[in-house]
Amino acid sequence: MSEYIEHRIKSKAENFFKGFFKVLIGGILLIILVFLFGYITMRLWNWLMPDLFGLGEIQYWQALGVLILAKILFGGFGNHKSNRSSRKRHKRCKTRYDNGFKKDFSNWKYYDKFWEDQGEKAFEEYVKQKQALDESE
Description:
- The chain is mainly alpha-helical and about 140 residues long.
- It has a domain at about 1-80.
- Helices cover about 80% and strands about 0% of the residues.
- The chain is built from four helices and no strands.
- The protein has helices at about 1-55, 60-75, 85-100, 110-135.
- The chain is elongated, with a radius of gyration of 33 Å.
- About 0% of the residues are buried.
- The model has no long low-confidence stretch (mean pLDDT about 80).
């Protein structure tokens, strides 16, 4: 029993540190990408804008500020809601469809003939049964 507890604690610690390092590395990569994107924006601005529109050159932090301002004005911050629920719903409908829920249309050619022969009669009997139930209640 003690080996089992020791194994569980060890695996929980390993999973915690794996997750921690993934988040740490992801954060570092995100920061690097933000700085790189700011630098690229600064270079593009300084290459195009002074020649095209007669605007002055900008520094790195100004380029980063322009990116943040553009994000606020045009992109917003959104709710970042995942579409997990819609994916689950779609998957649920798809599995119902795949598990025999789909109709067999090979007998479709008999539908008109059935409705002519028995459909109207069966429907009238059904209506009579429902009316009898409604009257008895």
